[in-house]
Amino acid sequence: MALIDTLKEEQKLAMKAKDKARLGTIRLALSAIKQREVDEQITLNDDDIIAVLTKMVKQRRDSVAQYEAANRQDLADVETAEITVLEEFMPQPLTEEEIKAFIEDAMTESEASGMQDMGKVMAILKPQIQGRADMGKVSGLVRAKLV
User: Fold this and answer.
1) Most exposed residue of 82, 115, 127, 143, measured as fewest CB within 10 angstroms of its CB?
2) Selecting from 3.10.129.10, 1.10.10.410, 1.10.10.10, 1.20.1050.10, what CATH number does the domain 96-146 have?
3) Which domain of life is it from (predicted)?
4) What averages of pLDDT result for each successive group of 10 residues across the chain (147 residues)?
């Protein structure tokens, strides 16, 4: 089943269960997906949808950090609940060992020899691990290997 179909089915289930928080989060996700489809005049595939969901999770994590810094735990809890719902539709996160194995394979494939090859390595890695690992952390690991 396509990811968009799964989201729509979960939306129906949340409506029937009268779970307003879950329903609201799923609607936000569907809205963001639809907005990107309209803006770019394309139909998003599962990888593109995962990219949208990843962006939404990252935004919410940033919000949680800001709310906690401002001592607004009530708002941070709402954002954390939304992250939990969004992560249900994303692929399972990779372990540290799996990420390192992907990096090694990408460096071998791109024949990376230094920092000038970072873009090549990241271009190979991004489609493989999108939505399954924090790209910022992956970038740091690649940079450490290339130095």
Assistant:
1) 127
2) 1.10.10.410
3) Bacteria
4) 91 96 96 96 90 92 95 95 93 87 89 86 87 84 86
According to CATH, the topology of domain 3-88 is: Hypothetical Protein Yqey; Chain: A; domain1 (1.10.1510)
d(CA 24, CA 18): 11
SS3 44: coil
| 2 Rama sector, left if φ>0, alpha if ψ -120 to 50, beta otherwise | beta
Question: Which of the 8 DSSP states describes residue 45?
Answer: -
Tokens 């194995």 sit on residue: 101
pTM, two decimal places: 0.78
